[in-house]
Design a protein that fits this description.
The protein has helices at residues 14-26, 38-48, 65-76, 89-97, 110-143, 162-167, 185-201, 250-292, 298-335; strands at residues 7-10, 34-35, 52-56, 80-84, 102-105, 147-151, 157-160, 205-213, 216-228, 239-248. With 341 residues, the chain is an alpha/beta fold.
Length: 341
């Protein structure tokens, strides 16, 4: 416990308020004031900045303790512990809906008072750390040049970063819209199936989606991961939400296709050159070999030896042509590119 944590008391009974202050000071807390109505409580919180408040549900004035606590929670995010002599179900339900950090019944027990304050301060500190952590992660998501989204188990979109809103032309979201209101129809079917698989089985899943968007072929690389409940007992099979990241890889795919096109075009050009060289070399070689064979002499034998060497080189060109033709046929079969025979 930090030194002299401030507890603001809001109690409409003067004597009870003094008793609470005495007990709190005995426990080491600082009590800067005792108020008896909700209007003053809302005003004083901004001036005194207490660490925690003890609020009677029934107060003087027009504002109830529950109404005052709700305003304080939203405006100042200060934890409030309710204090009341009433323990009926209707009162308890009203108090629960206003998200208090604790609930005390009169007459107070000192041990219950101290324990409830410590638990409320601890819970508040954890909630505050979680909110700050969420803010940091959200800031990172907002800086990302990928689409980042969070889906609830009912497939409503809990979060979509600014890049995603711009990409899909989505206005500011005031509530959690359904997936159908965010993602284009041609993407929705496969993306919803991907999310469903993650919800059902709990593992991450990466899928490449290909579809037409705004009259253009688009390729999106999508990874969805589960957010698991701490106890594994909530949500769908323990998955309370899924987080997705989508990266537009359309430019990369188009470049790869262009490279394949250029590659097969070069192969086809090489094949044409091989055929030309074959015709331009083999035909004269055949004539030279025929003339040299007409008479036996040392010079003609030397000519025939050179013709054989050149013919071997042409055979190697033939092998290159055959290899190029095999590569070309492979590309034609798998990528549907190139000139068909």
């Amino acid at each position: 416990m930090k030194e002299h944590e401030k507890v603001l008391v809001v109690e409409d009974e003067f004597v009870t308020g003094l008793e609470i202050r005495a007990r709190l000071e005995d426990l080491g807390y600082d009590v800067p004031d005792i108020l008896d109505n909700g209007e003053d409580a809302v005003k004083k919180v901004g001036e005194l900045h207490p660490d925690i408040m003890i609020m009677d549900i029934t107060l003087k004035g027009e504002m109830t303790g529950i109404e005052a606590a709700d305003i304080i929670r939203k405006k100042y995010y200060i934890p409030v512990i309710y204090l009341t002599a009433h323990s009926d179900e209707a009162t308890v339900q009203k108090a629960i809906h206003s998200e208090p950090f604790g609930y005390l019944i009169k007459p107070l027990e000192e041990r219950a008072l101290h324990t409830t304050i410590r638990m409320a301060l601890y819970k508040h500190a954890m909630d505050k750390a979680l909110v700050e952590s969420e803010k940091r992660y959200r800031a990172i998501a907002e800086l990302s040049e990928n689409i980042i989204f969070i889906l609830n188990p009912d497939y409503s979109v809990a979060y979509l970063n600014s890049f995603g809103k711009d990409y899909f032309h989505v206005p500011d979201m005031t509530a959690a819209p359904d997936m159908h209101a965010i993602f284009p129809p041609d993407l929705l079917t496969t993306l919803e199936e991907q999310a469903k698989t993650v919800f059902e089985f709990g593992g991450s899943l990466r899928v490449t989606h290909s579809f037409t968007y705004q009259e253009e072929e688009v390729w999106l690389d999508s990874t969805i991961v589960p957010v698991m409940a701490d106890d594994g007992g909530e949500g769908v099979n323990g998955v309370i939400q899924v987080v997705g990241q989508i990266n537009d890889i359309s430019s990369m795919v188009r470049i790869e296709k262009e490279i394949r096109n250029k590659g097969i075009e070069q192969i086809e050009q090489n094949m044409e050159q091989f055929l030309i060289l074959n015709d331009q070399i083999r035909n004269p070689l055949a004539i030279i070999a025929s003339l040299a064979s007409m008479s036996e002499s040392k010079e003609n034998n030397d000519i025939l030896d050179q013709v054989k060497r050149i013919d071997n080189l042409v055979n190697q060109l033939d092998k290159g042509w055959i290899q190029s033709d095999a590569v070309r046929n492979f590309l034609l079969k798998h990528y549907k590119m190139g000139k068909k025979d």
